[in-house]
Amino acid sequence: MNVTTRPNPFKTSVWIRAGWVALLLYVIYAASRLEITWARFLVGLDNGAKFIGRMLPPNIAQPDSLLTGLTESLEIAILASCLGILISLPVGLLASRNLMPVWATWPARMCIALCRSFHPVIVAILFVKAVGFGALAGILSLMVASVGFIGKLFAEAIEEISLKQVEAVRATGAPFMNVITYGVLPQVFARFVGFATYQLDSNLRNSTMVGIVGAGGIGGTLFSAFQRFDYDFVCAILLSIIGMIMLGEVLAGWVRAVFLERGKVEQE
Predict the structure, then answer these.
(1) Where do you find CATH 1.10.3720.10 in the chain?
(2) pLDDT in tens, 87-146
(3) For residue 20, how many other CB atoms are within 10 A of its CB?
(4) 182 confidence band (pLDDT: 50, 70, 90)
(5) d(Cα 136, Cα 127) in Å, to the nearest integer?
(6) Helix (H) or strand (E) holding 32
(7) By C-alpha distance, which of 214, 225, 191 is closest to 131?
(8) What are the φ/ψ torsions at residue 12 (nearest 5 degrees)?
(9) Residue 257: exposed, middle, or buried by beta-carbon count in 10 A (0-12, 13-18, 19+)?
(10) Which residue of 70, 128, 164, 201 has the smallest Cβ count within 10 Å?
(11) At a CB cut-off of 8 Å and minimum separation 6, what does 71 contact?
């Protein structure tokens, strides 16, 4: 009786095992260098329990400040997302290597890489120094982050399209913009809507962080509450931020459903 032997899918070599051992040793070394100990973790749990006890129950001590901060964060996220998406469209198109020449793709990809190199908080600090405190610095910093994210994904989506449809439109003698409109965008529209809604959701979260460094939004209100030790108001602010993010997620899902359903109807 012949028994068919299947190869072991989890077979490892000596080098792979040595790599895992080296990684484990480095983790232990890094933990010792950073003073990560079990006793410190237990102390942190005790301090965290006391901190949560001081946060409960939540108290909206300054409703006007809370409402103003949430409204400003929402405005920053929407404006930054719209501007970032508008800029990402041509940048992502220029960065696509299957449609554009090398002299156009490299500068566009360098721009995308530069926008993705720093965290939005770091970019917000730079813009606060440049344009001063307020919502403008937050809008500019999140716009840069949007270009880095949307531009990269949009370029990759264009590079994955089928060129048969593009060549068919070109064969009709259509100009370049018609080729993009009828040969490229229909193939990437659904994915682009998903990228845009995700970036809006991301900007809603980041708009609360950039405010901590003076770039407007609810982050400034949160930082002020921490400085005053108004931890019950801090809890109210955090719950409000969670509510805003959940509402944004619901709206983003509705937008995706509407646009994707319309795209299916148009294709049929």
Answers:
(1) 63-267
(2) 988 888 888 888 788 888 898 889 888 888 888 888 888 888 888 888 888 899 999 988
(3) 10
(4) confident
(5) 8
(6) helix 14-33
(7) 214
(8) -125, 150
(9) exposed
(10) 164
(11) none
Task: For residue 107, say if its preceding peptide bond is cis, omega within 30 degrees of 0.
Answer: no
State the distance between the two ends of the chain, measured CA to CA, in whole angstroms.
56
- What is the reported pLDDT for 132? 83
Q: Please list, in sequence order, all residues whose beta carbon lies within 8 angstroms of the beta carbon of residue 96, skipping any fewer than 6 positions away.
A: 105, 155, 158, 159
Q: What is the pLDDT of residue 1?
A: 47
Q: What is the SS3 assignment for 133?
A: coil
Q: Which residues contact residue 263 at a Cβ distance below 8 angstroms, ignoring those fewer than 6 apart?
A: 186, 189, 190
- Which residues have CB under 8 Å from 3's CB, separation 6+? none
* Residue of 186 and 108 predicted with greater confidence: 108
Give dist(CA 176, CA 184) in Å, integer: 11
The hierarchical CATH code for the domain 63-267 is 1.10.3720.10
3-state secondary structure of 214: coil
**Widest CA span of the chain, in angstroms?**
82
Query: Is the separation of the CB atoms in 188 and 89 below 8 Å?
Result: no
- In single-letter form, the type of residue at position 85 comes to I
Q: Is 220 exposed, middle or buried (0-12, 13-18, 19+ CB in 10 A)?
A: buried
C-alpha 258/C-alpha 248 separation (Å) is 15
Separation between Cα atoms, residue 9 and residue 7, nearest integer Å: 6
Q: Is 106 within 8 Å of 142 (Cβ atoms)?
A: no
CA dist., res. 243 & res. 260, Å (int): 26
DSSP 34: T
